[in-house]
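SEVERITY: medium
COMPONENT: batch folding queue
REPORTER: lab tech (J.R.)

DESCRIPTION
The queue accepted two submissions in a row. Attaching both inputs and their returned structure tokens so the on-call engineer can compare them side by side.

ATTACHMENT 1
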Amino acid sequence: MKVAVPAESMPGERRVAVMPELVPSLTRAGLEVVVQSGAGRRCLVPDAAYRDAGAEVVPGIAASEVDVLLHVRPLHPRVITRLGPGAITIGCCAPASETASIEALAQARITSFAVELVPTPVADRGDRTDREVADALDAQGTVTGYRAVLEGALRLPRALSLSMTRSGGTPSASVLVLGAGTAGLTAIATAHRLGAAVHAYDVRPGWAEAVTSVGGMPVDLGEGFEAAGWQLEDPRRPGLVRRRLEALAAHVTSADLVITAVAGGGGKPPPRLVTQATLAAMRPGSVVVDLVAEAGGNVAGSVPGEDVVVPIREAAAGVVVTGLRDAASALPAEASRAYSEGVVDLLLSMTHAGVVSPDFSRDMVRAACLTHAGGIAHRPTADRLGAPASALPREPMAHRWPAGSGRPRRTTAPATATAGGGGA
């Protein structure tokens, strides 16, 4: 089966879905790997590295002849319509926002897997567990958390670290990180190494111990604010989400730099953690970095790729709200390596004897599937689009043609497209 790796075409995107060092894993599994020329150029990987690893490098991807398409950014509908029915795609799909892309995937009868939906905490019943299948999206947090601190430090009108001189000194800057996932923990560790006093908060189990382990100080809101998620209400504690945000506001307004790193999870938009009123109550010159601005944002008024200044009454400086965009692309080689490990792991978990055949009886495969057989398989996305959620089979996906017979070719010339992140 032919696995294609296109060059991403979205402006600012520098990552690639598969790095050369992972190509042998695919070819050993009996898969044919085709890489578009220049796919790795923006992350400093030449075409020759892919050839040496065993991939075929081609000028353009013939989308109609692709069996599996691996991508970074959500696919453009024009690219999706060029794929053959039954083709498989694996990559970022942005279920909470990419309506046109998702509808096109369903209409084209594409079996798509969204890396946003891979449920790492849940044990799988197959040969590999979900913990053994790398979470491609979560792995980007090691890059985005690092970048969030650097972006914030550059905009903050003071140093993060303690400064001492003969005439006195200035204390360390106060940094607050909301969210203790991979990105949040990386941000905590980075800010701590730069000398800041770092506090953090999350709602997930064991978050306080994780924060302490990387040099942060857990924020104590008192009893009664624990929950299974940032947006989940508890019928036994009415108004839990509102009361938690009110309690956090005092910590937000006292920080010099605030970094928010809470994704929505399960294809949902991120929760709103910092309101306009809280921003207006912060000290002049404070900085807020919204790490998930592209997905909808944790901070009121954040715009991906822009600095928004919130004016403070009778103050010469306001509060700078920085919405990160293409955060992982700042370090494209590291980000691509982490991302491709997760994508390749997911693909190999569905590959048997050179055939990619997703086994929908496995919890991980079912959870990560976004569209299949003309329908939207992910229920929250289907509900958002007002469509019925399609039922997935409980057996491995049937291949489109008998194994070993070779794929039937179209009589017309196949459409050639730059298939990744926007398309041609």
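ATTACHMENT 2
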Amino acid sequence: MSVKQIAYVGAWGADIQGVTNPGEGDGGVKVYTIAENGAMELRDQATPQVNAGCISISADGRFLYAADERKDFGGVYGNGGGVCAYRIDRRTGKLSFINEVSSAGAYPCYITVDRNRRYAFVSNHGNHEEATTQGVRTERGTYIAKRMFDEGSIAVFPLSEDGSLKECCELKVLEGNSVLDFFQWTAHPHSVFLDNAEQFLFTADKGSDLIRVYRIDYDRGRLEEAWEQRTQKGSAPRHLVFHPVLPVLYCNSEQNNTVHAYRFERETGKLEHMDSAVTVPEHYAPSNTGDTFDRNQTADIRIHKSGQFLYVSNRGHNSVAVFTLNDRGNMTRAGIVPSGGEIPRAMNFDIPGNALYVANQRTGNIVQFVVDDRTGLPRQTGYEIKLKNPVSLQFLALP
């Protein structure tokens, strides 16, 4: 018997990254039904003015949460971003807006919710280039002018029984930078991710070349520093995923075309690097050096339900790199397949876990692939949909 499922697609309503999207109104969260053959049909659209850069569905399937990726919350530039809550109609999958609160930072780009729906965790990325000038005191007791950037931060939001968001109760402002101009002038957390037991919160800070680990105090709504894992300088760790069985964490590096595996110590949160692999062909060279993405930046990372295959999307090479995983979690690249469009920013498996959907941001299309259970390689089915600025993708099974 086939699973009745809904696809939720987060889209930017404004032009954030040089992608044409005239005016606001094409963003928000779009709701699609999925036919037995995998074809998607648009059924609803919620809050089209929202820049839904990332969406997360509660484990009970009753609520959806979205990071409103902006810096002009409430219509005032400089007010930061927002976090939105929606109620899901369990019969149709349609969304009803509940409320929105300040994200307590600029450009919130990732959100996740714990299984018991106690808290929503959000990463505030901050802007790459805008700066203010502030007078600061030096160690010598004198004063100088210093260029200051948006803060990168991790924010924690209590959730009410009715699904609504309360205001931020914990904020970890991150400090750091690394070797790359522009991308690493300051800390930029690009994701927040829970371990399988949900004792620890992980964030990939691409601005500081760090994976930061926090122990979660659910009673007080606090984050306690547990571990910092230094990554290769200039690598820019972006997204994270855990192996479904093994104590292994995988992280794709945005700026150097690599993916890394780390042993995870479940009791302490400590990480230890164990393996790395390359996501593009050995002699790949950009055809358009003026295009930020053409030299390639990795984006999303997913793992197959079997725990045997890992997937990383390449923006620029416009492909999905596929890796086989052995019984220890080590990676071997099995192949690289075209993404079916340009700038594959997001991808995800459907509920049964046999179909992989890839959202190509620049060309505005979501392409369906079926995965070979033996090799892990995805194959395009011919089904795709067109929409503007797809940047996040989640699925939900309906009763």
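NOTES FROM REPORTER
The chain is about 0% helix and 50% strand.
No errors were logged for either attachment.
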